Amino acid sequence: MLEHFSEKLNLSPQGIWEPNADLEEISYPDDGHHSRVALEENSFWFNHRNTCIQQVVKKYPPNGVIFDIGGGNGYVSLGLQQIGIETVLVEPGATGARNAKQRGIKHVVCSSFQNAGFQSGSLPAIGVFDVVEHIEDDSGFLNSLSDKLTRNGRLYITAPAFNALWSAKDIHEGHFRRYTISKIKHTLLNCGFEIEYANYFFNFLVPPIFLLKALPFKLGLTNSHDTKKGQQEHKQAQGITKTILDFFSRHELNKIKNDNSIKFGSSVIVVAKQK
Hints:
Number of domains: 1
Order of helices and strands: EEHHEHEHEEHEHHEHHHE
Strand order of the largest sheet: 5-4-3-6-7-9-8
Structural class: alpha/beta
């Protein structure tokens, strides 16, 4: 199937497509894929993000395959597959690509977007879910995505929001920035995209992130991210905490379903179209 989009990819014995080029260095922690694959399934954060992405993709469906660029262990790709969206995972990290294949992702490419050799104007849709913040030259990256999209091809983006929430975790994860809706809209418009949808989500996480992560970092009380503590925060909540998180998650999802604006959040979700 991928022969229609690139002439530089070969299928390995493990069933993973690979380019004839060395892997590029990426701005992502070495332990990222190892630490996340075990907790994604039971994490309310990853589950809620998937549900929001699925809802937005249903409202603004792709005209063909979605190429999930920098898709890590394939958790978003798997969620899209489960709602009937054909998806190709493109992940430069070998560990993430293997995890995604083991998870059941049908089409996995172990490559950076640049090395994959996708033909200009060939991709029906692209997803970059918590990826753009890892790219130093985000405008250059978005221009390269635009070049590969078909006419009117759709681009789906999620990214962390608001520099006021910047903390040691952002540094640990290799972020270069956090976005507001106005900032990401401005960047996309300058890259020739038309904005179809933009909203915040995870609005209920803004107070705890600011008070427990961002504020201590700004005051110099924390200078490094505790990976083990971060993993504990993703574990499935129990009791009253679970009840509260479920309530806020359902409330936020209903807002997205009903096209209601969410005024703030710790993440932003955007759909743009290649003009």
